[in-house]
Design goal:
The complex is a heterodimer of chains A (140) and B (981).
Chain A lengths: L6 E4 L3 H13 L6 E4 L2 H9 L8 E4 L8 H9 L9 E5 L4 H9 L4 E4 L4 H17 L8
Parallel strand pairs in A: 1-2, 1-3, 3-4, 4-5
Helix pairs in contact in A: 1-5, 2-3
Chain B lengths: L1 H4 L3 E6 L4 E4 L1 H7 L3 H5 L12 H14 L1 E10 L5 E13 L2 E10 L1 H24 L1 E7 L4 E4 L1 H7 L10 H7 L5 H14 L3 E8 L5 E12 L5 E10 L1 H29 L3 H16 L3 E8 L2 E8 L3 H5 L5 E2 L3 H9 L3 E3 L11 H5 L4 E9 L2 E10 L9 H51 L3 E12 L4 H8 L3 E5 L1 H6 L13 H4 L6 H12 L3 E10 L5 E13 L2 E11 L1 H29 L3 H12 L7 E8 L4 E8 L12 E2 L8 H5 L4 E3 L2 H4 L4 H8 L4 E9 L2 E10 L7 H80 L6 H30 L7 E4 H12 L5 E5 L5 E4 L1 H17 L6 E9 L3 E8 L31 H11 L4 E6 L3 E9 L1
Parallel strand pairs in B: 29-31
Antiparallel strand pairs in B: 1-2, 1-5, 3-4, 4-5, 6-7, 6-10, 8-9, 9-10, 11-12, 11-16, 12-13, 14-15, 15-16, 17-18, 17-21, 19-20, 20-21, 22-23, 22-27, 23-24, 25-26, 26-27, 28-30, 31-32, 32-34, 33-34
Helix pairs in contact in B: 9-10, 9-14, 10-14, 14-19, 19-20, 19-24, 20-24, 24-25, 25-28, 26-27, 27-28
The chains are: A alpha/beta (140), B alpha+beta (981).
Chain lengths: 140, 981
């Protein structure tokens, strides 16, 4: 992965943000991480032309104001934004959530483990997958 | 001399055409005398139109010295044209050149020719119209000549082919070839014309029927030389005949089936009659009837009966299976011309039995299919062409099946009727023996005064009544209830006949007079001494003297018993008929009003009421509401507004409620203000009969009959009407019950709908609750876990060992709480209604579960038999097996662990077992282990939530099963559970 491409983390839980950031640093991911605490903020961030388009979005589902599914519905309306790969990181094991998010084109669906080390493993897997994966040029 | 006597006309003329001499024959042709003729020139008698031809003939004369013969016409004396043929030569006489012509009148020949032409044209036309062709066979050269029609008939291009007898034979239908050959040979040998009908098979496989007539001619040595014949196309006629035969057979089948319904009461026989009828009309190879029992089709009848051996055992069909089963499902007839090409046919036995074409027709009762009639043919048949007839028969058979129940009930009535017939027969027997023992009554009757036989019959009858008995035997007296004959002497006929105006008796006397004062076996209706009605059969001879009726001799037999039995039987038949009809109406009608209407129509045929109303009684409001007014319907006087019992003044409610008939002989005497009574009185309807409709002891309504007087309501008719009313009441009651059931069902459905909605709502709430628990409870838990981990990791140099140990324990307890929350979530999810069920291969599911659990190497897991497929939710069933297997692994205390999994099948369930050779469970804990959060070993010894088995129990219950265990403490445990099929 190009270490200059930014990562957008949409997450309202402070500890979860800390956990993810710490996991990044533990496995030496140096890409810039931008955090938005809900869907509304994330949309504003993405629609602001001054901000760089992120290479990947890590998305929580349960958030105030605009939840993850609503956020996915919004970016699906924008031909530019819908190209960004989204990985869901959530506590929800609901079948319904899985079906709906995959329908909205997410690249993956991960359950947040309680155990930190397992969390690190998940982040490592996402990173690995993303490194191997070919992504469309964001200028397209 | 020759010139004058020649029958041929001869004429001599100059070259300019002037006639010099003619013979009488010539003059005759022209219709003139010789002298008249000689005044003419040749040109005078030749019509203008021949001038060119004449000039050519003259030219020929000059060149060759002769002309002709050629045909032309002469103008005769009357100006008519006479056809002639003439020829001539140049003759020289006295150096003068003359033309000598011979002329013949060909009028007759011309006429014949014309007639012949006409005839030929007419014959040809006639042949064409009648589709008759003619042919001629030269037996010497074997050459066959056909007329145009024969070519057309045989479909052969005209005269392209050289026809021979052999080619002709090729066109004859193979099955008829020998017959035609033999018939022709016989005809030739015996010199008899042949006259046969046979088929011909054309190149395009069309079959035609032809009628051939042929006669052979012989030479002097009796050798046949020539056959002449005609051939007529009678295909249409034949088809029409066949169609007629077929139609009459169809009609006969339908009729005879109808008749069989009334004669044979065994359902099987009736169905057999129907089946045979269908078989004889359609001529398939097999015809059969399936009767539906639930979702099975049971073979009821088969024709021909030996078809079974051919088909082998006919297995049960199920609804939806094969063509018959599909017919039931789709409620419409199905036709298959070729079952091998028809994917609806799934029953191989049919194909193996050589069946090719098939038809299946559903037997319907209203909207429900109650059976199937099937037809099978070994050759290709399009049964759909017979659809119309089949539908008629199927309709009849359906009705029969539906009526079968009805007939069973009618059977009882019929038995009763048979008893009545028997009673009649017995009474006849008795009567006969009575007559044999006591001889007939004999009497002599004298007129008051001689009656002139030329008097009008009416006056004669009046006078006859005035005469009296002058002689009688004891038997005669006994017939009238007297002990001795003396008592009868002097009694007048008027007395015996109970008056002089009984139409039966007047008719009887009238016919006696008309028959010449002689009659035998004529019936009279008389009164005995006590005024009882007595019927007699009479033989009477009158004595006429000089044109006056003086006296008469009579013999009498008493036929009262016979007569009464007959009347009784007739009444019984009437009653039976109406009851029988009612059953039919009940079966067919859509509402009780319609049943009532149909019944009133029938009752009107034997009770001369003028108006009938059917009224419904409502106990709660104590009021009556008319539901039907016959025959005129509702109007401004008679409406369907409720009438309170208190308003219904003429009504005796108590009487009617007790089930008795209320009779109002004369409404006028009631002096009522009741508007409807007044209305009836205004119409001249003074008598009314009110019959209660009672079912299960409750008054449901009344039928009210109104007529001019009580004469139209004799007791026996009221009796029948009451019976009908009872039946009608039952059908009313049934109808009400039916409507109640329908409304109750609707209500129930509504309730189910509401409950389902409530359930869905609470399910939704539960889902939302689970969502909240999983997220809101787990998020802080995760935070604690991670933060404590980081504290332990990042500050390990600043916290002593004891502190570190406590942090580790804290992390452990957080994990345990997480497992608990997860367990509760699973448990609550398992409790939801069954949804998204799919067929699951349990063998694969269990194998996957074992892989997932990754048992340690010292534990061996064996699946002892192939596990079945089961329809359910794969997540739940996975949890079920995983929890049980996981327990067996988790608690295993033996160095060589053995876990065995298997299943058995009983009538309703699959039963599974998971046995282990682990520590075993004491029996006192058998119940406890299935309770949520209950554990037998502390968490610190063995991690666990205490949810696994209660979750397993919950899942098993969802699939209608049970879970239990057997265990020997220290040796092992077997868990059993069942899943409902």
């Amino acid at each position: 992965m190009n270490s200059t491409i930014s990562i957008l983390l949409v997450e309202d839980d402070q500890v979860d943000v800390m956990t993810i950031k710490r996991a990044f640093s533990d496995i030496h991911i140096t890409n810039p991480v931008n955090v938005c605490e809900n869907g509304v903020k994330a949309l504003e961030y993405l629609q602001n032309p001054e901000n760089e388009i992120p290479g990947i979005i890590l998305l929580d589902l349960n958030m105030p104001k605009m939840n993850g599914i609503e956020f996915l519905q919004e970016i699906n309306k924008d031909s530019r934004l819908k190209l960004i790969p989204v990985v869901v990181l959530t506590t929800s094991k609901e079948e319904q959530d899985k079906i709906e998010t995959y329908k909205l084109g997410v690249a993956g669906y991960m359950i947040k483990p309680v155990d930190y080390l397992q969390f690190v493993e998940i982040i490592r897997t996402i990173h690995l997958y993303w490194t191997i994966c070919e992504l469309p040029n964001s200028d397209n | 001399m020759l010139f004058n006597t020649s029958p041929t006309g001869l004429a001599l003329c100059k070259l300019d055409g002037s006639l010099v001499d003619v013979n009488p024959a010539y003059a005759k042709i022209l219709g003139r005398t010789i002298d008249e003729t000689l005044k003419l020139t040749y040109w005078d008698i030749t019509p203008e139109k021949y001038s060119t031809q004449e000039e050519l003939q003259i030219k020929s004369l000059e060149e060759t010295g002769k002309y002709g013969p050629y045909e032309k016409e002469y103008i005769n004396k009357d100006g008519d044209l006479i056809p002639v043929v003439l020829s001539g030569v140049i003759v020289e006489k006295d150096d003068q050149r003359y033309i000598m012509s011979s002329v013949e009148d060909i009028t007759e020949r011309k006429q014949f020719e014309k007639a012949l032409q006409n005839n030929e044209a007419r014959l040809s036309e006639a042949q064409h119209i009648a589709k008759i062709g003619s042919w001629e066979l030269d037996l010497v050269t074997n050459k066959l000549i056909w007329s145009n029609e024969v070519y057309q008939l045989f479909g052969i291009e005209h005269q392209i082919t050289d026809i021979t007898f052999d080619i002709f034979m090729e066109y004859i239908h193979p099955d008829d070839r020998d017959m035609v050959g033999d018939a022709y040979a016989y005809s030739v040998k015996n010199k008899k014309p042949y006259n046969i009908v046979h088929r011909i098979l054309l190149k395009n496989s069309i079959i035609k029927y032809v009628h051939e007539i042929c006669e052979t001619y012989y030479d002097d040595t009796n050798k046949p030389i020539r056959s002449l014949g005609t051939v007529q196309d009678i295909t249409e006629q034949k088809q029409a005949e066949d169609e007629l035969k077929r139609q009459s057979l169809e009609l006969e089948t339908i009729n005879s089936f109808g008749r069989s319904l009334s004669s044979k009461l065994e359902l099987k026989d009736v169905l057999n009659t129907a089946l045979k009828g269908i078989h004889s009309v359609i001529e398939p190879d097999i015809t059969f009837i399936f009767i539906r029992e639930g979702d099975k089709l049971i073979l009821s009848n088969l024709h021909p009966t030996n078809a079974e051996s051919k088909l082998g055992d006919i297995p049960e069909h199920r609804v939806g299976e094969c063509i018959c089963g599909r017919t039931v499902q789709e409620k419409k007839p199905m036709f298959s011309i070729d079952i091998f090409e028809d994917n609806r046919c799934t029953w191989n036995e049919c194909k193996q039995a050589g069946i090719k074409s098939f038809a299946a027709l559903p037997l319907m009762n209203k909207e429900e299919v109650i059976g199937v009639i099937g037809l099978a043919s070994n050759t290709e048949r399009d049964f759909e062409k017979e659809a119309k007839f089949l539908e008629t028969m199927v309709g009849q058979v359906s009705t029969t099946l539906v009526n079968a129940q009805l007939y069973k009930s009618v059977q009882v009535e019929l038995d009763e009727r048979k008893r009545a017939e028997k009673a009649l027969y017995q009474s006849e027997e008795k009567f006969r023996s009575f007559v044999e023992q006591a001889s007939e009554g004999i009497y002599l009757y004298e007129m008051e005064s001689p009656i002139p036989i030329n008097m009008s019959i009416e006056d004669q009858i009046k006078n006859i009544y005035k005469g009296h008995i002058i002689e009688a035997n004891d038997s005669q007296a006994r017939m009238y209830g007297y002990t001795t004959a003396e008592k009868l002497l002097g009694v007048t006929l008027a007395e015996l006949h109970g008056g002089t105006d009984n139409p039966v008796n007047i008719e009887f006397i009238k016919s006696w007079i008309e028959a010449g004062y002689r009659i035998a076996g004529s019936e009279s209706e008389e009164l005995d001494k006590d005024g009882n009605k007595v019927w007699f059969s009479n033989n009477i001879i009158g004595f006429i003297e000089n044109g006056y009726l003086m006296r008469l001799w009579g013999t009498q037999t008493n036929i009262t018993a016979q007569k009464e039995a007959k009347v009784k039987l007739e009444k019984f038949a009437n009653r039976l008929q109406i009851l029988h009809k009612m059953d039919k109406y009940i079966l067919a009608a859509e509402s009780p009003e319609k049943i009532a209407l149909s019944l009133l129509v029938d009752m009107a045929k034997f009770i001369s009421f003028k108006i009938a109303t059917v009224t419904e009684y409502d106990e709660t409001s104590d009021s009556f509401t008319r539901v039907l007014v016959f025959p005129d319907g509702f109007d401004s006087n008679v409406d369907n507004k409720p009438i309170l019992t208190s308003e219904y003044e003429i009504l005796d409610l108590k009487l009617l409620k007790s089930g008795k008939v209320q009779i109002v002989e004369d409404l006028r005497k009631k002096r009522t203000n009741y508007k409807n009574a007044q209305w009836l009185i205004d119409k001249g309807l003074y008598s009314t009969v009110l019959i209660p409709l009672i079912s299960e002891g409750k008054l449901l309504g009344i039928i009210n009959f109104a007529g001019e007087s009580m004469d139209v309501f004799p007791p026996d008719k009221i009796e029948i009407a009451t019976e009908v009313a009872n039946q009608l009441a039952i059908s009313f009651q049934q109808w009400k019950l039916r409507e109640e059931i329908i409304s109750y069902t609707e209500e129930l459905e509504q309730k189910v709908k509401q409950r389902t909605e409530q359930l869905e709502h609470s399910n939704q709430e539960l889902r939302e609750f689970a969502q909240i628990v999983s997220h809101d409870l787990k998020a802080p838990l995760r935070a604690i876990s991670q933060l404590s981990y980081w504290v332990w990791k990042d500050y390990s140099d600043k916290i002593d060992e004891e502190g570190q140990e406590k942090l580790k324990m804290m992390i452990g307890r957080v994990k345990r709480l997480d497992n608990l929350i997860e367990g509760i979530l699973q448990y609550s999810r398992a409790g939801r209604q069954r949804e998204k069920e799919i067929p699951i291969n349990l063998q694969l599911l269990v194998e996957e579960s074992i892989n997932l659990l990754d048992p340690p190497s010292n534990i061996k897991i064996i699946i002892e038999n192939q596990l079945p497929e089961y329809i359910g939710d794969p997540t739940r069933l996975g949890q079920l097996f995983q929890n049980l297997i996981n327990n067996a692994i988790k608690f295993m205390d033996k160095p060589n662990g053995l876990i065995k999994i298997g299943c058995t099948l009983d009538a309703d369930n699959w039963q599974f077992y998971i046995s282990d050779n682990g520590p075993g469970i004491e029996e006192k804990y058998f119940n406890r282990i299935f309770q949520i959060f209950q554990r037998l070993i502390s968490r610190d010894e063995q991690e666990g939530t205490g949810i696994g088995l209660s979750l397993a129990k919950r899942i098993v219950h969802i699939y209608g099963g049970e879970i239990w265990l057997t265990s020997t403490y220290g040796e092992g445990t077997t868990f059993y559970f069942t899943l409902r099929l």
